[in-house]
Amino acid sequence: xxxxxxxxxxxxxxxxxxxxxxxxxxxxxxxxxxxxxxxxxxxxxxxxxxxxxxxxxxxxxxxxxxxxxxxxxxxxxxxxxxxxxxxxxxxxxxxxxxxxxxxxxxxxxxxxxxxxxxxxxxxxx
Length: 125
Hints:
Helix content: 10-25%
Distance between the termini: 45 Å
């Protein structure tokens, strides 16, 4: 796959103790594909927050994306409950039709192609 020039990836992972962020994208995807010119992605991670020594934040996750040259990407962190968080990183504009685990604070992003949306939060709207 080192000669791959274009990649569209949609993946959602549950049961991890660490989010898949820009550092993961670089080390486990981009480093293996030096010819890649177009990378459209959505990577969602559903993590257990019990025992985490840090609080997940959009700013920290976005910084990992910017650090690897993904300026046209963003993140959404939603604390679904006291012990679970959903972290999504994705390229912009959002190119997929399926989006889940948004909280009660919607980002200022146009999701033109989304036909399925799952919004969940412990706090009422």
